[in-house]
Amino acid sequence: MSGDSSSLYKNRIEWSDVTPIYNTAEEDSVVKIALRDEFVDAFAYLRAVMNSREVSARAFDLTTHCTVLNPANYSVWEYRRFLLKELNEDLKKELKFTEATIEENLKNYQVWHHRREIVLRINEPKVNMHFINEILRNDAKNYHAWQHRVFLVRHFKCPLEPERVVSERFIAQDLFNNSAWTYRFFVISEMSNDFENTEIIDSEIHFALTWINKMINNASSWSYLTGLMEFSSFTAHPELLTYTRNILHPMELVHKPFNLTESSMMPYALIFFAEANLALVSEGQGNSENILLARQSYERLIVVDPLRKRLWRHKLIELMNVSNTSSSPLI
């Protein structure tokens, strides 16, 4: 289209009544961008009809063209939603158009937001997950698709057990899919009344351990377990410290006393072990030995996780300062 000057809006008789609004020289001088004539022309006419709030089929068609040229432009989509309402356009048709645009722009926030707005306007109680399932089948870590699924489940109060099954299926396909773990955390929060149901939490703790056993050095599963423990206690689950302690104790040292300076090089287990010991003290069930184990865990992390050694040194200094403060809840 850019190679054919007759296709430009400035050369179309049906647009002759519109005065295009081009960027000023000052605006273009801020960041010089090489734009095609087609782009400059279309958006000049878009600014003009937006400025006059024109409601017409031609303005709507212009937004279609502009979404192709720049699907990340918020103003285009906002104006298009205005026209959809004023022109009483077919929202089911718009949903299909939006989905086709998403397929060409999988990581584009504005297009996903537009789909959300259209779904809300249609407001059908029965939710069809087919489109989201297809996107995730080809791009299982697509953040926008997972967030859109959260919106659909929460807004339309979808059954949660099928969603829990969905999350497990994606986790089974890829244990490192943090998006699937995060989605499961959302589902469990909804199922357990914002983590008030201890039975569900206990079941999920077992679930997390099952997957940690399959791949011990996996940040996603350890983070999930850590998140669950925000709503439980290590006093109620002493087996977690024993479990982590056994992971950190190498098989070749099984007949020797537990020594974190010789522990396995498992950073995520060490992080969890440090936090678990400190949490136990905060719960009033720990003592100086737990503080010592947390300190040794951070010292070991400096060695086994050198990329974040500054963080572990900070944690270590922070812990030592707190331990030396008589008013500290850790004492």
From TrEMBL:
GO terms for molecular function: CAAX-protein geranylgeranyltransferase activity; protein farnesyltransferase activity. It is an enzyme of class 2 (transferase). Its EC number is 2.5.1.58, 2.5.1.59. Keywords: Magnesium, Prenyltransferase, Repeat, Transferase. GO terms for cellular component: CAAX-protein geranylgeranyltransferase complex; protein farnesyltransferase complex. InterPro entries: Prenyl_trans_a (IPR002088). Transmembrane segments: none annotated. SUPFAM superfamilies: Protein prenylyltransferase. Its cofactor is Mg(2+). The keyword Transferase applies. The keyword Nucleotidyltransferase does not apply. Pfam families: PPTA. PANTHER family: PROTEIN FARNESYLTRANSFERASE ALPHA SUBUNIT/RAB GERANYLGERANYL TRANSFERASE ALPHA SUBUNIT (PTHR11129), PROTEIN FARNESYLTRANSFERASE_GERANYLGERANYLTRANSFERASE TYPE-1 SUBUNIT ALPHA (PTHR11129:SF1). Belongs to the protein prenyltransferase subunit alpha family. This is Protein farnesyltransferase/geranylgeranyltransferase type-1 subunit alpha. The lineage of its organism: Eukaryota, Metazoa, Ecdysozoa, Nematoda, Chromadorea.
